[in-house]
Specification:
single chain; 228 residues; Spore Coat Polysaccharide Biosynthesis Protein SpsA, Chain A; two-stranded antiparallel ribbon; 7 helices; 11 strands; binds cytidine-5'-monophosphate
């Protein structure tokens, strides 16, 4: 779980993963949901290097109930994932990479992704159709192209891989290519097919301040349903 981003688009404040949603740190929500998935035996968190001790204390306090390993994240998401991969126990064969910034992705989504890998797909991403029309624009703000919306998908995490494939894709990747914004992108680069499964609307990425409003509303609805 890459969790080392600063969250600058959310404004100034603590590292994004430590910011609360409905009173609970985003990282705790994200780790808890992933740990509840049937196929997950261990969660490796790439924490912000300056906050590693705090992350350790927080995850112990919330008693996740699944083994959690904490490593220091890197300067880019790709580097954070690479460091987390290096800390996986040797027996692990299937890996999910899940952004701490998607703390409401339900554990059923992780289950579905793991199942697709077990069914024989080497690389699996959850994705949703896009509602907006997407255009390519240049730096001057001029439209270059309108992309055919029916072919477009907004890709989420958790993304699932055969461990060796993901390790090979990371080993082959250039260190800092800004177009490589997800792990499936690294796998595509080495010519391996990526399979799409249905994403989930609650798998949204908390990036901008308005996403916090959406996420807190979703959590309030969820908690109201589970109230005694
Ligand atoms: O940068 P972006 O918003 O795409 O971040 C997606 C995920 O990658 C977040 O969970 C963030 O914490 C993580 N990340 C990381 N290390 C970085 C930058 C981002 O683990 N250096």
């Amino acid at each position: 779980m890459p969790a080392a981003g600063r969250g600058e688009r959310l404004g100034l404040g603590p590292a994004k993963a430590l910011r609360p949603l409905g009173g609970v740190p985003m990282l705790v929500l994200a780790v808890r949901a992933l740990a509840e998935a049937r196929g997950v035996d261990v969660v490796v968190v790439a924490a912000p290097p300056d906050d590693r001790a705090e992350v350790q204390a927080l995850l112990s306090a919330y008693d996740i109930g699944t083994e959690v390993v904490i490593v220091s994240g890197g300067a880019t998401r790709q580097e954070s994932v690479r460091r987390a991969l290096a800390a996986l126990p040797p027996e692990v064969e299937i890996v999910l990479v899940h952004d701490a910034a998607r703390p409401l992705a339900p554990s059923e989504l992780a289950d579905a992704v793991v199942q697709a890998v077990r069914d024989g797909y080497d690389a699996v991403v959850p994705a949703l159709p896009v509602a907006d029309t997407i255009k390519r624009v240049d730096e001057a703000g001029r439209v270059l192209e309108t992309l055919p919306r029916e072919q477009l998908r907004a890709v989420q995490t958790p993304q699932g891989f055969r461990r060796q494939l993901l390790a090979d894709a990371h080993a082959a990747a250039p260190p800092a290519d800004p177009t490589l914004t997800d792990d499936a992108g690294l796998v595509e680069r080495i010519g391996v097919a990526v399979h799409v499964v249905p994403g989930h609307p609650e798998g949204l990425k908390v990036t901008r301040p308005i996403d916090v409003v959406f996420a807190e509303a979703l959590l309030a609805r969820r908690w109201a349903r589970h109230a005694p």
